Amino acid sequence: MATIAAPPWKALFQQHISLMPSPEFTLGTLRRAAHSSSSSSPSYVPHVRTVIYRGMWAELPAHKHSAAPQNPRVYASAMPTFTTDRRMAKVGELGAGQGGSGGGGPVDAVWWVRETKTQWRVSGRAFVLGPDVEECEDVKRALGRGMHALEEAEAEAEGEWSWAREVTAHFGNLSPGMRGSFRNPPPGEVKSAVPAGERRQGEQVEDLLDGVARENFRVVVIWPEEVEMLDLSDALKASRCRYVFDADAGEWRTEELWP
Predict the structure, then answer these.
(1) Is 205 exposed, middle or buried (0-12, 13-18, 19+ CB in 10 A)?
(2) Phi, psi dihedrals of residue 135, rounded to the nearest 5°
(3) Helix (H) or strand (E) segment spanning residue 71
């Protein structure tokens, strides 16, 4: 894994997010325009939705709903995560197919933290993790750049860390009702197009390896390339700061901006 130090923005970002009653954020992706031709230069339109922040990748907190085995605490990262259904449009917009892991498409993620009157914007690439994640070397390599081993981590524990276990732990951290939502009919499908016998909804899933739910469940990890904080807590002294990741140097550059 990488040896990238913790970004200068991470601690304050996490402090602010911890104050939110529910850590929702707005996720923006690019969707191919309906009128776009099949030419080599198709047109795209922005597509946004609200999702729930699930913590930083490899730093999943324990949850009261979960009986899932947890990975040993050996890695840290500054890569925000959320969960989704493989049948959602956003999965394709991220460059991943419905069959498994992949992606790397561009995203903008924006949190408005009312409690601190601060806006956080994370711009970067998002990768989708599915049941086949252990075999998806390209995705593991891309995200591994943003993971670093903790100093106190033992080498033996580091070898026990599993990508698949981390995905299962994310599934386990959801409530049984939320897990059950992955057994629902395809999101966005016309209701009348779904056979009556398949119109299940509101199921409670306790089995962490439920075949239907796990086939549809995905964890999405955002690799941040640029982070911007706009602080409006003092109307007379508003501030704005941009952090840009220099891939060649493997470090973050900080820029003070006019708000």
Answers:
(1) buried
(2) -95, -5
(3) none
Instruction: Indicate the residue type of 151.
Output: E
Which helix (H) or strand (E) segment is 142 a member of? helix 137-144
213-252: pLDDT as tens digits: 999 999 999 999 999 999 999 989 999 999 999 999 889 9
Please tell me whether the overall predicted TM-score, pTM, comes out greater than 0.90 for this model: yes
Give the whole-angstrom CA distance, residue 13 versus residue 38: 41
Unique residue bearing structure tokens 């992955």: 182
Other Cβ atoms less than 10 A from the Cβ of 247: the count is 8
Query: From CA 224, how far away is CA 221, in angstroms rounded?
Result: 9
Strand locations in 68-216, DSSP E? 75-77, 81-85, 102-113, 118-129, 147-149
pLDDT in tens, 67-89: 899 999 999 999 999 999 999 99
Distance CA 78, CA 80 (A): 6
66 close to 94: Cβ distance less than 8 angstroms:
no
Q: How far apart are the first and last CA of the chain?
A: 36
